Amino acid sequence: RLFFDSSYYLSSNPQKEETAETEKYQYILPDGSTLDIGPARFRAPEVLFRPDLIGEEYEGLHEVLLYAIQKSDMDLRKVLFQNIVLSGGSTLFKGFGDKLLSEVRRLAPKDIKIKISAPQERLYSTWIGGSILASLDTFKRMWVSKREFDEEGRRAIHRKTF
């Protein structure tokens, strides 16, 4: 984990960095050997925003976020744009918040205010949120046992949650 936190980053201008002579980063492994990392330092995280770089035809993270907000109730959209919360390990890449903000700004309505929060504990916030959700009595009614899933598949999830 420390390896990715310290050496990989999201570039504000990856096209420019592709043409520039990228400085190699030297990472010392626990056994004392070294690893030289070049353009992969910014290319690997860029896939989160541009899956096409690895031949995938998915939407980028910023596009999925915008799609989810646009599919929500019209009255909630403004609030959702102002309450984007980063969570999970990939959000720890240097420049992640800035890149997400610039990409969402580029696609969002021009008059909308966008606010992104990056909590210190975001590495574990998905687990924390999941444990809180799982402990709620209302959520327990939505649990699907392995037997139910084996018998009904996705229908079991839809039956209990929708």
TrEMBL record:
Pfam families in UniProt: Actin (PF00022)
Q: Which UniProt keywords apply?
A: Cytoplasm, Cytoskeleton
Q: Which GO cellular component does the record give, naming just one?
A: cytoskeleton
Localization in the cell: Cytoplasm, Cytoskeleton
* Recorded superkingdom: Eukaryota
Q: Which SUPFAM superfamilies match?
A: Actin-like ATPase domain
Task: Specify where it is mainly localized.
Answer: cytoplasm
Q: Which family does it belong to?
A: Belongs to the actin family. ARP1 subfamily.
| PANTHER family named among the record's database cross-references | ACTIN
Name of the protein this chain belongs to: Uncharacterized protein
Species assigned in the record: Graphocephala atropunctata
